[in-house]
Amino acid sequence: MTGRSSFVVVANRLPVDEVPDEERAGGRRWRRSPGGLVTALHPVLVQRDGTWIGWAGSAGPAPAPFMVDGIRLHPVPLDADEIARYYEGMSNSTIWPLYHDAVEPPIFRRRWAASYREVNARFAEAAAQVAAPNATVWVQDYQLQLVPAMLRQQRPDLRIGFFLHIPFPPIELFMQLPQRAEIMRGLLGADLVGFQQRLAAQNFVRLAHHVLGCPVSGSVIEYEDRRVKAAAFPISIDVGEIDRLADNPLIRTRAEQIRTELGEPKTMILGVDRLDYTKGIEHRLKAFRELLAEGRLTVPETVMVQVATPSRERVEHYQALRVKVEREVGRINGDYGRVGVPAVHYLHQSYSRSELAALYRAADVMMVTPLRDGMNLVAKEYVAARADAGGALVLSEFAGAASELRQAFLCNPHDLDAVKDSLLRAVHVDPDEARKRMSIMQRHLRRNDVAHWARSFLTELGSL
Ligand code: GDG
């Protein structure tokens, strides 16, 4: 595979998973991973001979570049120390908690920051090699915030975009970061810096002025004789894919079967999250427990299903969270379950897209109550999965999705009484009103799907 690309995506992970090859005993092959980002970018990548640069997912030397579904993939190696320091350390124990309102205390370590710098330089180097003259390079997310500046230094001819999938914190919090000036300079290497929400873009503009003294006007920052634009591009989902999946007769049958397996409850409440302390799983369980204790909800008429997909299991914050969540589930089931009738069905497992779609379709109330979330795609998936216009969404005001899904039952997840109140309103909502709310949100999503997100960002980047 030779030739350079006029469009390059740089992300921590390649959009593929290594799976057993059914056609060759003992063999392995690459399969495109599910997910909106790759679906949205696939047409652009194919049209423009694009390349995706990222880590292939296992420690050690990187495989040679290869192709999957018409996309060129360019693996970048990470060794075990780098996974511990750059990825689990700086990315997931420093930046992730700091950018999510420090709901867990961020940990600052100089060795992690050094590794983050080295790995970012490696990604930038790979992009510099792969990009054709005057190409567009789109860098993704918090693991790679130094890449834009590092890349610009080697390749000033490129048009560089950056998109942050998680929140961007206010000045008071960001100022804690020992590498604050370095990260700001890193991001300002881009021509366009995209965020999930307008407030995040505003935080960034203010920080450019506060930390580096850049002149700013509206959404434009002047930096080293260039103009950098900061704006909001709320990410979305492949609405058509979820809609087709959830409306498939097999999935509808599976949804009915799930309700039978749960004992035909009157109300099925669902949560689907990575097991992450930003997702507010404990708060949600506590709200459910209090409603059971007060007799305002009862088992077996009401059951809760909580899927908590295993995530970042080697990071300490996550191990502690798992213990707390599982203790709360045990307490609820101990107090309110009966033989064969648990109050909470807790599933610390990863499911297929089809099973998730069936769960969405089966649930009367979906609870999405993060303490802070860049967007939260689960909320959008639930809405898109309800072609029947059934169901009700309880949504945290602190999810990016709350700016768009205004017809959800919104709540402040830190206010337990407010969570309980929203949950009860969703449980008892009049079906006509529920259908209206769902239809309005669906219309919004159909116009604002992930393809629209990618197009808006790339059009803006192209026009600068
Ligand atoms: C980050 C930001 C932002 C979950 N469990 C399973 C599974 N999932 C899928 C969901 C959804 C995705 O994972 C999770 O996306 P979220 O947006 O809800 O949350 P994060 O992973 O924290 O994502 C977030 C997002 O980036 C995009 O910019 O919205 O704010 O934190 O698609 O369906 N998928 C499968 N099995 C599971 O068990 N197959």
Cofactors, ions and other ligands in the entry: GDP-alpha-D-glucose
Amount of helix: 40-55%
Low-confidence segments, ≥5 residues, pLDDT <50? none
Highest-level CATH class of the largest domain: Alpha Beta
Structural class: alpha/beta
Taken from the alpha-carbon principal axes, the silhouette is globular
**Gyration radius, rounded:** 23 Å
Task: Measure the end-to-end span.
Answer: 32 Å
The largest beta-sheet arranges its strands as 5-6-4-1-7-8-9-12-11-10
Going by CATH, the architecture of the largest domain would be 3-Layer(aba) Sandwich
How many discrete domains?
2
CATH topology of the largest domain: Rossmann fold
For the sheet with most strands, the description reads: 10 strands, mixed
Q: How many β-strands, per DSSP? A: 18
The fourth-level CATH homologous superfamily of the largest domain is: Glycogen Phosphorylase B
The mean pLDDT is 96
The number of helical segments is 16
β-strand percent reads 15-25%
Summarize the structure.
This protein has 464 residues and is an alpha/beta fold. It has helices spanning 36-47, 80-99, 110-130, 147-154, 171-174, 180-187, 198-212, 239-247, 249-261, 281-293, 316-336, 353-362, 377-385, 416-428, 431-447, 450-463, and strands spanning 5-13, 16-20, 28-32, 51-55, 66-68, 71-75, 131-140, 159-163, 192-195, 216-217, 220-223, 226-232, 267-274, 302-309, 344-347, 365-368, 392-396, 409-411.
